[in-house]
Give the backbone structure.
Amino acid sequence: MNLNPTLANHRGMPDDRGHIIPPPDQPTTQSPMTIAISIIVILLLLLVALIGGFYVYIYYFRIQRPVPTLTGDAPLPGLDADVEILR
């Protein structure tokens, strides 16, 4: 006989008569809607990462790199000011 009345209410534990209350059934598969939402969220995160990477590439690597001119010289920012100081 179970002397603790709180245990009788728990699933998987025997009640006063010794009968075991079965635990609730656990779903073994996910619904198709859950899988679809998960795939959409993952694709959106990948899209955000791709856009962020492209932004970093354009604004932090392409803009700061000197661009060759028609004469083959690469203009460097601040070079004119240094030349004026040296004159």
About this structure: The helical segments are 32-62, 79-86. The two ends are 104 Å apart (CA to CA). The chain has two domains: 1-26, 31-67.
